[in-house]
Write a structure and sequence with these properties.
The complex is a heterodimer.
Chain A (H helix, E strand, L loop, with lengths): L3 E4 L2 E4 L5 E7 L5 E8 L3 E10 L2 E4 L6 E7 L2 E6 L8 E8 L9 E2 L3 E5 L1
Parallel strand pairs in A: 2-11
Antiparallel strand pairs in A: 1-3, 3-8, 4-5, 4-9, 5-6, 7-8, 9-10, 9-11
Chain B lengths: L2 E3 L4 E5 L4 E3 L2 E3 L5 E7 L5 E7 L5 E3 L5 E5 L4 E6 L8 E8 L5 E3 L3 E6 L1
Parallel strand pairs in B: 2-12
Antiparallel strand pairs in B: 1-4, 3-9, 5-6, 5-10, 7-8, 8-9, 10-11, 10-12
Classes of the chains: A mainly beta, B mainly beta.
Chain lengths: 114, 112
């Protein structure tokens, strides 16, 4: 199994509070992604990174920011959580760029915003 | 617009029966196609992928999928389902640099 660790695995928070999810990888893969999974929507890309300090937006990036200061860590921040951000968040990594590459996924972080 | 459609939200089969999960895509160029499986509480795991060449691809756990360009389909099959195959299955298309489009998933239930 790919070495991907997401933390926290479960979090309950209140509307308006900031939340940071962490993804840590031990594979030294250059590319990292944050997805959210919601019933009826499959997986939707929030942000991705193609190197240290290199990030870009995905299809549902509003309300989220990311940072990548080290190859192994990719942080997803909700500056002011809303109930619509209640979801399961998955980090994924890939060895190189281009969508011909397999994605390896973490086990997910379940976030509930009350 | 690029899209992936999995028309079956839920499928129930008996253990030992054959299985086919449908996936249709809309993509202008030659697609990169994937099937992933997700067990409850887990992340997604790659079952198989198609990039080019032989249109019938073999994957892990006895799964196979056939790429049919004329039908824009990439259906997943297994000749004999095991109870441990109960999970959710996602079809995905590689859509340009760094981008993947996922279907909404098909949840498989296996009856003993």
């Amino acid at each position: 199994d790919a070495g991907i660790t997401q933390s926290p695995r479960h979090k309950v928070t209140e509307t308006g509070t900031p939340v940071t999810l962490r993804c840590h990888q031990t594979e030294n893969h250059r590319y990292m992604y944050w997805y959210r999974q919601d019933p009826g929507h499959g997986l939707r890309l929030i942000h991705y990174s193609y190197g240290v300090k290199d990030t870009d937006k995905g299809e549902v990036s509003d309300g989220y920011s990311v940072s990548r200061s080290k190859t192994e860590d990719f942080l997803l921040t909700l500056e002011s959580a809303t109930s619509s951000q209640t979801s399961v968040y998955f980090c994924a990594i890939s060895e190189s760029g281009g969508s011909a590459r397999e994605l390896f996924f973490g086990e997910g972080s379940r976030l509930t915003v009350l | 617009a690029q899209s992936v459609t999995q028309p079956d939200i839920h499928i129930t089969v008996s253990e030992g029966a054959s299985l086919e999960l449908r996936c249709n895509y809309s993509y202008g160029a030659t697609p990169y196609l994937f099937w992933y499986v997700q067990s409850p509480g887990q992340g997604l795991q790659l079952l198989l992928k198609y990039f080019s060449g032989d249109t019938l691809v073999q994957g892990i756990k006895g799964f196979e999928a056939e790429f049919k360009r004329s039908q824009s389909s990439f259906n997943l099959r297994k000749p004999s389902v095991h109870w441990s195959d109960a999970a959710e299955y996602f079809c995905a298309v590689g859509s340009g640099t760094y981008k993947y489009i996922f279907g909404t998933g098909t949840r498989l239930k296996v009856l003993a």
